[in-house]
Design brief:
Largest sheet: 9 strands, antiparallel
Bound molecules: zinc ion
Strand order of the largest sheet: 32-33-34-35-44-41-40-37-38
Distance between the termini: 97 Å
Number of strands: 53
Helix content: 25-40%
Strand content: 25-35%
Shape: elongated
Number of helices: 19
Length: 1016
């Protein structure tokens, strides 16, 4: 037979596009349209409904960037349409090729009750089916003129990302505003032809099924009268019934489709707009659930539920009802889909605490899967946190974005730094916005790497970010793919149903040990430094506030600020969202984040001050007390307690001029030599006589690179950035700096480009640590600033702190996997050692770093260079990213073992506080007699019982035994999960004895203890 395949395929495309789809709405009449534009920010619904309208016509421009217009449409269903299905078509000026990221609307009835959202791929509102004829139609649309930030020519700098700079040029033109007859049969025909046409293209050309489908499609097209599509659509469908009824083969891949809309909690829009995006999408989804009995929708991020509850209670009532029916499924159990690289130990834990608690309290449901489709890499600390939160599964899709190495599994056990294993699934569909296209379904089946031993995968299905979620078209297509020859099968299922099947069919999945590093978006560890520092500072202040408020509550009866801490935690957790903390949002988001962190900082400082003053007693007649919020003893003050300040002796602290320029700083522990250009040429650990700085090299060298990635400016740094570098060695001034009585310091000022930097290098009495405070007035564009420390250490690997421990990364680039990790994350420290001697670099400020190695020609020794990443200056999406004044604190710790790295990391992050009062001292609530056991949190239990909750972890990566004693009479101690519920999952041992608890923990194990004080 002659091969006319491409002729039929092309015919299908043209007839669908030019004849059949236009027949979906065979008759229409225009709606009468009026508008009112809110003068500033969005107004309450009642105000928007009541505001006076003025006429507006199709084709008219509307919508200054970020403005809200209340558009009213009115009309009458023609009598002639009686018995037909009638819909309103409301096109706000959508670009249908872009499913979200533009204008959007929420439709209300005149009484203010929401109907559904309007989105580029979802422009209809059902009026009546069947219509009686003569119905009056009156609807109001709250239309948001969110400008397009990520355009067809992406990553161009734009001022549209902040309402302060966006101007007032209208962004959209009203398009179709009609009442129309909806032809259900034509719509079903479109669905049939789309499914079969898309399937056909994925089938092998030499297989019979492709030709069976092709001939059926041809017969169907023959059956259509192109002048009367509506009259012949049923006949055309009949020709397709046979090929649509042919069932899938037994070995077909099985896809669990999950209705979904990945809504970024802020990104190319401000937080306030996400509140409305979520309301529009959930209005759509709850309406769709009522129309489609098989459909299941899942939504993560407790924060988004909390927003609807607060701002759109009518939508929330619909959500609650659908959740109770088991069809709207809360997923993920986290407050937001956060970044996981940067959040500290406690914050990562609290993401689950607050997320899970919200779902439990609001809906009585506890889900067991962590749901992080879009997060930029996953730390080795996360598996243990997931397990301690009472969850056992993880879903993410993002690792498929890695640029170099293809991950070898789609379903596997992921093992974290402590040995916890989590059953993990990467959807092979490679998107979290599946739209049930044949290409996607076929890709999932082909791409699935666990074929032969497993058969199931998941497909999150729906438009996110203002696309409105799952559409009725996706559901119609899924119904046809339920059991269709040549395709994977598709069922709507809850994530838990998928995970249970996937686990059952795959009893011995492969294991991946250590972090899930994303080989992309590496610059998110550095971009928007102020947002990152706001997060760090807030995490540290929250630790102190909980500690001192709990201590003051037990000791003095001061009321514990439950409500304030709950609210502040939730705000900090929200800002760890995977486009806020990573620095990849528009200027508006980061401007607000900075202000929010400042306000939280003030509030937390006030809570700390109030609690410490209560503990210190009256100021009048008092003396100075040193409070130590760190988990390690500091000079006289115990960890978590306070002691009287003593005049610290400046033992051996000296600064002398160096021959040839520069200075030598000494404190009896370290001797640090700074050359005439203000660079550290030597740092000798006096206890061992060991030199830290590699011969011929200079440490604390600031280096400037050009940094213009190929795309994703705020997100990415591409490896070629290293090809050019400028060492910043020019000195404006080098002077001995005024320091505290117990410290010596030098100050070096430099200028470069349009920027200036002042660094203060300080050696304190009794500290084996060179503190480096950096103040940069940064006015560069598309540059990357690093601080380099070339160290005389030979090692294959180095440690970087992550949540509840540290992980090792190689210092070499043997394989493509190692080479791809050219920028990585640290929390408070990076540590390198040779047996018996090591060095730590600690930071209170930054997350990004890189480590490289060279072998010196002169002496054959190895130089391992650690560079902290300080600042970038990308221009998209915030054209002014990081411009202005920044302060950083880092330190070099020669002679540090891993325990020293842990301790110095805490000490630099949690400076002592001095308070005047009459108390002799403040004894810590809890004390530990083993340095490897580190207290992560001391707080009162969230349930208000007055119990003390203490979280402890083994920090050095070994086994540790120790005794936790309390300074209050102990009635009992119970191991708990992160939600402070009794838990028997502890793998080490926890034994209560007398006034304390004996702990024996495994490497990096964390344990949460609920301690009950004896009364009376
Ligand atoms: Zn996202």
């Amino acid at each position: 037979m002659h091969d006319d395949r491409s002729l039929v395929e092309s015919r299908l495309k043209r007839v669908l596009e030019e004849r059949i789809r236009p027949a979906l709405y065979p008759e229409s009449v225009p709606l009468e349209v009026t508008v009112w534009t809110a003068p500033g920010e969005p107004v309450p619904v009642a105000e928007g409904l009541a505001a006076p309208r003025t006429p507006i016509a199709v084709g008219d421009a509307w919508g200054a960037p970020w403005s809200t217009s209340w558009i009213t449409v009115a009309g009458t269903v023609p009598e002639a349409w009686a018995g037909r299905t009638v819909e309103a078509l409301i096109d706000l000026g959508f670009d249908a090729n872009m499913p979200g990221f533009q204008c959007e609307g929420l439709v209300y009835r005149p009484d203010g009750s929401p109907v559904k959202g309007l989105n580029p791929q979802n422009q209809w509102v059902r009026i009546a089916a069947p219509a009686a004829g003569g119905e009056q139609v009156l609807l109001h649309v709250e239309a948001a003129a969110n400008p397009v930030i990520l355009d067809y020519h992406p990553f161009l700098p734009t001022e549209l990302g902040d309402k302060d700079t966006a101007g007032d040029r209208p962004q959209y033109k009203l398009a179709r505003m009609d009442l129309a007859v909806f032809d259900e049969t034509v719509w079903q025909l479109v669905m049939d032809l789309e499914v079969l046409g898309e399937l056909m293209e994925e089938l092998p050309v030499d297989g019979a099924r492709r030709w069976d489908v092709l001939r059926a499609v041809e017969r169907s097209l023959d059956a259509i009268d192109l002048q009367d599509v509506n009259g012949t659509a049923a006949a055309a469908r009949e020709q397709l019934a046979g090929v649509l009824a042919s069932p899938a083969v037994p070995s077909a891949h099985r896809i669990s489709a999950v209705g979904h809309a990945h809504i970024d909690s802020a990104w190319l829009w401000p937080l306030r707009e996400t509140v409305r995006k979520v309301a529009r999408t959930t209005a759509n989804m709850t309406a769709l659930l009522e129309d489609e009995p098989d459909f299941v929708y899942t939504m993560s991020q407790a924060q988004q539920y909390a927003w609807i509850k607060e701002h759109r209670p009518e939508v929330y009532a619909r959500v609650k009802k659908a959740v109770a029916e088991g069809r709207f499924v809360p997923a993920g159990g986290m407050w937001v889909e956060s970044d996981t690289n940067m959040p500290g130990s406690e914050a990562m834990a609290r993401q689950f605490v607050h997320g899970k608690r919200f779902f439990l309290e609001e809906f009585g449901v506890e889900n067991q899967e962590a749901w992080l489709p879009d997060t930029f890499g996953f730390t080795g600390g996360l598996p243990q946190i997931i397990r301690n939160a009472g969850s056992k599964w993880l879903l993410t899709q993002k690792i498929s974005w890695s640029q170099v190495n293809k991950f070898p599994h789609h379903t596997f056990l992921w093992e974290g730094i402590d040995g916890t294993r989590i059953f993990t699934h990467f959807p092979p569909v490679d998107t979290y916005n599946c739209s049930m296209k044949g290409k996607e379904i076929a890709h999932a089946a082909r791409n699935f790497k666990d074929k032969g031993v497993a058969r199931h995968s998941i497909a999150p299905t729906g438009w996110g970010d203002g696309g409105g979620g799952t559409t009725r078209e996706m559901i119609a297509k899924a119904a046809r793919l339920r059991d269709l020859e040549g395709s994977a099968t598709v069922r709507w299922e809850r994530p838990a149903e998928f995970f249970e099947k996937a686990e059952a069919e795959y009893p011995n999945p492969p294991v991946w040990v250590g972090e899930l590093y994303l080989e992309l978006h590496r610059a998110t560890l550095t971009s928007q430094a102020k947002t990152k520092q706001g997060n760090r500072r807030s995490e540290n202040l929250l630790r102190e506030a909980e500690l001192w408020c709990a201590t003051a509550a037990l000791r003095t009866g001061l009321a514990y600020p439950y409500e304030e801490l709950d609210r502040i935690w939730k705000t900090v957790l929200l800002h760890q969202f995977h486009d806020i903390l990573p620095g990849s949002s528009i200027a508006w988001v980061h401007r607000e984040a900075e202000a929010t962190y400042a306000a939280l900082g003030e509030e937390l400082e006030a809570l700390i001050e109030r609690a410490q003053q209560a503990l210190a007693g009256d100021r009048a007649g008092g003396h100075e007390l040193v409070f130590n919020g760190a988990p390690h003893t500091r000079s006289a003050a115990p960890a978590g307690g306070a002691a009287p300040a003593s005049a610290a002796p400046a033992d051996g602290c000296a600064v002398t001029a160096r021959a040839g320029g520069g200075f030598v700083l000494e404190n009896g522990l370290l001797s640090v030599t700074v050359d005439g250009e203000g660079l550290v040429v030597s740092a000798v650990d006096l206890a061992t006589g060991r030199e830290t700085v590699a011969p011929g090299e200079r440490a604390n060298l600031l280096q400037l690179h050009p940094d213009f990635p190929n795309m994703w400016d705020a997100w990415d740094v591409d490896q070629f950035y290293r090809n050019s570098v400028t060492d910043l060695t020019g000195v404006d001034a080098l002077t001995v700096s005024l320091a505290a009585p117990d410290a010596v310091a030098v100050r070096v000022a430099r200028s470069f480009g349009s920027s200036t930097v002042v660094q203060t290098l300080t050696l304190r009495a009794g500290a084996r640590r060179l503190d480096i405070d950096t103040e940069v007035d940064w006015h560069e564009t598309e540059k990357f600033l690093k601080a380099a420390f070339p160290l005389d250490v030979h090692t294959e690997r180095y440690a970087a702190e992550t949540q509840f421990g540290h992980l090792y990364r190689p210092t070499h680039t043997n394989t493509s996997w190692e080479a791809a990790k050219f920028e990585a994350c640290n929390h408070r420290f990076v540590h390198l050692d040779e047996p018996g001697w090591g060095v730590a670099l600690v930071t209170a400020s930054t997350y990004g770093h890189d480590v490289t190695r060279t072998v010196r020609a002169a002496d054959g020794g190895t130089t391992t260079t650690v560079r902290f990443s300080l600042l970038r200056a990308p221009r998209f999406p915030d054209p002014q990213t990081d411009q202005g004044l920044h302060r950083f604190r880092h330190a070099l710790v020669p002679g540090a073992g891993i325990a020293d790295a842990v301790r110095e990391g805490y000490l630099i992050s949690l400076p002592e506080r001095r308070v005047t009062g009459t108390a002799d001292a403040v004894r810590p609530l809890v004390e530990l007699d083993e340095d490897a056991l580190v207290v992560s949190a001391v707080k009162l239990a969230d349930d208000g019982s007055g119990d003390v909750v203490v979280r402890v972890y083994e920090a050095n990566g070994g086994r540790a035994r120790g005794r936790l004693t309390t300074s209050f009479p102990l009635a009992g101690a119970v191991p708990c999960d992160l939600l402070e519920r009794p838990w028997d999952g502890t793998r080490g041992s926890v034994t209560v004895s007398g006034d304390g608890v004996e702990l024996a923990l495994r490497p990096f194990e964390l344990v949460t203890l609920r301690l009950t004080a004896a009364t009376g």
